[in-house]
Amino acid sequence: MSPTSPTSPTAPTSPSSPMSPTSPMSPQEARARQEQVSAQLLSETAMAQAQRDFQVQQALCDAAVSARKAQADLAYQLQVARTKQQIEEERAQVLVVERAQQAQLQEHEIGRRERELEATVRKPAEAERYRLERLAEAQRSQMMMQAEAEAEAMKVTGAARAAAVAARARAEAAQTAAKAEAFGQYQEAAVVDMVLQRLPQVAEAVAQPLLGTRRVTLVAGGSGDIGVSRLPGEILDVVTRLPAAVEALTGVSVTQAAQKKSECQA
């Protein structure tokens, strides 16, 4: 509360009218009167000074209040600015966190799509490729085994037919030799002629299994010819064994007899 304003100084009391000449003032009364006037003047001066001091103090108080209010306003504005800055920083941090979360979600989505692609496309494709490779390998193995079996069967069939033809030739030769011995008409050259006449039949019998064959699979098991060029060699190999078989059965060397016959004809 502001101090109570002092009462306004009262106007100095005017001195009493001078005594009439009929009643003159004594010196004591005049001095008392003078002291009364001086005291009144001093009181009025003190009251005026107190009023001035009060006004000065009130002005100082108002200035202090204004200064404090200005400081409070400035502090409030600074606090508001700091709060806004803090809010902006927190908002920026929230944006950073949100973007990081979005990036993480995108990475998870990419990983999920990769796994889905792996499960739906790549693995089935690899499984299909593996299945086709195994199937092709099995087919190759089956074809090779079938080719080997057919080649072996052909070889066995050819050898059996050649053996049958050779046996028949041996039987016919034995029969012819018996006839020659019985009638004395055949010599070694006749036996050779008969064998040579039978050689085309032997070659035809060896090649006969190939006439009804639709497909021939040749398997090369080592060095030498491969493919179709190997087939004539197999047939000739069977045919060239006949002179040795004839010599073993009859004791007649077809090669030597043929050479002698050529020399005689020359």
Task: Characterize this entry briefly.
By secondary structure, the protein is an all-alpha fold. It has helices at 27-183, 188-207, 230-239, 242-250, 254-265. The chain is built from 5 helices and no strands.
Main traits of this protein?
single chain; 266 residues; mainly alpha; 5 helices; 78% helix; rod-shaped
Radius of gyration: 75 Å
The largest β sheet comes out as: none
Oligomer: single chain
Secondary structure: number of strands: 0
Order of helices and strands: HHHHH
State the helical fraction. Answer: over 70%
Mean of all residue-level pLDDT scores: 75
Structural class: mainly alpha
Shape, principal axes of CA atoms: rod-shaped
Query: How many distinct helices?
Result: 5
Strand content: under 5%
Organism: Mycteria americana
Keywords: Membrane
Protein name: Flotillin
Subcellular location: Membrane; Endosome
Protein topology:
Layout: H1 27-183, H2 188-207, H3 230-239, H4 242-250, H5 254-265
Helix pairs in contact: 1-2, 1-3, 1-4, 2-3, 2-5
How would you characterize this protein structure?
This protein has 266 residues and is mainly α. It has a domain at 147-212 and 226-265. Helix content is 78%, strand content 0%. The radius of gyration is 75 Å and the shape is rod-shaped.
